[in-house]
User: What shape does this take?
Amino acid sequence: MSVIALTSAHAAGVTVSSLALALSGARPSLLAECDASGGSIRTGYRMGEWGGEVGLWHLALADREGALAEAFEAHLRRLDAAGARLWLPGLTDPMQAAAMEQTWEPLGVLLQAMDQHAGYDVVIDAGRLVVEPGGVHPSLCPRPLLHCADLVVLVVRNTLTSIAQCLPVARVLRQELEQRGSGADALRLLLVQEGDVPDHEITRRLQLPVIGTLPWDEKTARILTHGTTRQIKPASLRLLKRARQAAHHAQVDANTRRLRMQLPAPAVTSPVVAGVVQRLLAPQQEAKISG
Assistant: This one.
């Protein structure tokens, strides 16, 4: 399993890419919508099914009362009919981001528990990166989630403009992960093929490995940004086919890196968190028995 955080230097398609990875992976997944500028999935892909009554803002309030784990479980929603894909809705107002500053870190512990103890691949939509002198902005970005991720994936389009905008951000991210995260070698690229700059040229310029490429597929992207009333079959959509490949490569990459660095699984010391993990693990165990 893995925890993978996606971010970008500009509007490169982080949310569409995050949704594609979460919907197409081979394993159960959890998409945590942690863009500090506000989420768009509830009004887009989920077509207004839920409003401000669910999401990160409520987790920040619960954290102050010592009830974060319970709120985390209560605010998870399904991304698919079977319930194998879960979603933690994001903020509804960028003004709420400041309230999350102290909650990002304990939320990261819960996401790691979902990965290593409940058996979910965790995809974090970290939104557009905001930097300040010295590193990533502490309140306008979910900085602790980048630190705890197995891989931090910079989404970039294969255009000269996108590459130029990513260069300074990649430098900041390298420094941030080296000083506060698990190391600069956690940084990767996910390419969105809008332009014509070859992959090897992007790798050379940014000096970062690529975990996958996604096609410029406006039809599927519109489904992921605006929603649809019909059932989605990932195997029938080109974007999700390629996303499945990228998810697999990211999974292998993250596991290889974790083994190489001999990173231990974070212990679940809280009985409340352990209870959350067990309840979320139960449907998977039942599915294996019935299968």
Summary: The first strand starts at residue 3 and ends at 8.
